[in-house]
Write a structure and sequence with these properties.
Blueprint: H1 15-35, H2 37-58, H3 65-104, H4 113-138, H5 143-168, E1 172-174, E2 178-182, H6 183-204, H7 209-237, H8 252-273
Antiparallel strand pairs: 1-2
Helix pairs in contact: 1-2, 1-5, 2-3, 2-4, 3-4, 4-5, 4-8, 5-6, 5-7, 5-8, 6-7, 7-8
Amino acid sequence: MTTTETDFGKAGRNLPAAIAVGLGLFITLIVSLFADVRFFAILVAFATVLAMRELSKTLVVGLSPRMLILLQILAPIIVVAAALDGVTGLVITFIASSLLVLSVRLLDGEEAYVHHVTRSVFALVYAPVLASFAVLLSTQTDGAWKVLAFVLLTAATDLGGYVAGAIFGKHLMAPTISPKKSWEGFAGALVLQLVVGTLLWIFVFDQSWWEGAIVGFVMMLSATLGDLIESMIKRDLGVKDMGTLLPGHGGVMDRLDSLVINAFVAWVLFSIFL
C-alpha cells in the first residue's frame, strides 16, 4: 500500500488552513504586544520551547532524555534573560547554556559527543538566541510598534513572494534548495516590502520615506535568506517540515524561519534608522 502527498500546487501548502492559523497567530501577537510587552516575552519563550522540541527530533537526533529536557529548559531561560537584562543577559545566559550542554552531555558517554554538542548549541542559537532579539526590540521605546513593524516587514516578503510567484512564477530562483521560489516571486516580495517599509516609516515612525525603503529592502533580502537557510536545513535532514503543530505551515520552526533571522536584522536596522 502506498500513500501520496496532497498536491497544493504552487502554494505548496494548505492555503485556507495556513491563512486561518496565520491570522490566529497574528492576533495573539497583537494582544501580547499591546496588552503588556511582558506577555510578548512569555509568548516568545513558549515558542522557543516548542521550537526546541522540534529541533531535538529532527536536527539533534539521538539525544538522551536528560539532554532533551535540558534544551527545553535553557531556551526560555535565554529569552527571559534577554527581556530582563538586555544584550548582556542574552550573551551571559547563552554562554552559560553552551557550557552546561558541554558538561551535561558528558554523562552520556563519548559516542557522538561532538555531533550532539555542536548541533545542540546550533539549535540554541537558531531558536532562542535569534528570537531574543525580537524581545530586545519590544523592551525599547515604542517597542510594541517596532516588533509589529518587523513582523509586517517579514510577512510582506512571504505574501508578496507568494502572490507574484503563484501568478507569474516561471524562473526558479534556487530549484535545488527551494523549488517553489521564483525570481518573479522575489520581485513581488521586493515591491511589497518597499511599499510597507515606506508606509511604516512615514505614518508610524514619522521618519523619512527613503529610510523605510532601505529597511524594507534589506529585510526582504534577509527574510528570503532565512527561508532558504531553513529549506537547506530540511533538505539536509531529509524532512519536508520541522513539525506538524501548525496546520498549513508545518512546525513552529517552519513559521519562524524568516522571523528569527529578521529579528536580529531588525534590531540592528532599527537601531540605525530609529
